[in-house]
Amino acid sequence: MYDLLLANIAKYITLTQEETDYLISLLHTKKIKRKRYLQQEGDTTRHTSFVISGILRMYSVDKNGFEHIIQFATPGWWIGDFQSFLQQKPGNLFIDAIDDSEIIQLSKTDLDNLFIKVPKFERFFRILAENAVAAYQQRFVNSLSLSARERYQNFAELYPSLVQCLSQKFIASYIGVTPEFLSKMLNQQMQ
Questions:
Q1: By 3-state DSSP, what share of the chain in percent is helix, strand and coil, each rounded to 5?
Q2: What is the pTM of this model?
Q3: What stretches pass through the bilayer (predicted)?
């Protein structure tokens, strides 16, 4: 059950068996049915979550009711409203399951204890945070400087498996266009 998570961790740090056992003692698994929320706007994020199976999406909803997808998380990815998680204050993001999903969760309190007992986890989560900031920064630059077609091509190159399994509505929201515009653009591309 924890193999994918332990493989993810092993990319960056090496754990002893005792450290692995301690980590596992802190973890909890949770199943989320398709279209069910892990978190809603106004909730305080109490756990960071690692996806074992399924696909989750994190998004905001603007004052006009339009969804803006910030992140998809597939098996092997972490997801959470990290501002809410770090500050332990109500968040402004939604996270729901696109497919039936299973996640591993680690509470804020347990994560803080993990940092104290196994300091190398600070390195692990620092690397994750650095990678996330770099990815978000690049995505922000792309949203300002690339055309919709280029943003779609970028998404398709980075996440080819998602292009096959996500609805055009979700992809459109992620790249910042309407579903109608994306459909028209893809139809023109095929001609």
A1: 50, 25, 25
A2: 0.92
A3: none
Alpha-helical regions (H) of 36-165: 82-87, 108-117, 120-145, 148-158, 160-165
Distance CA 186, CA 153 (A): 10
Q: How does pLDDT run across 49-99, given as a tens digit for each residue?
A: 999 999 999 999 999 999 999 999 999 999 999 999 999 999 999 999 999
User: Which domains does the chain show, CATH number per domain?
Assistant: 3-117 (2.60.120.10)
pLDDT band (50, 70, 90) for residue 189: confident
Q: Which 3 state secondary structure label does DSSP give 117?
A: helix
- Select from 94, 72, 62, 38 the least CA-distant residue to 166: 72
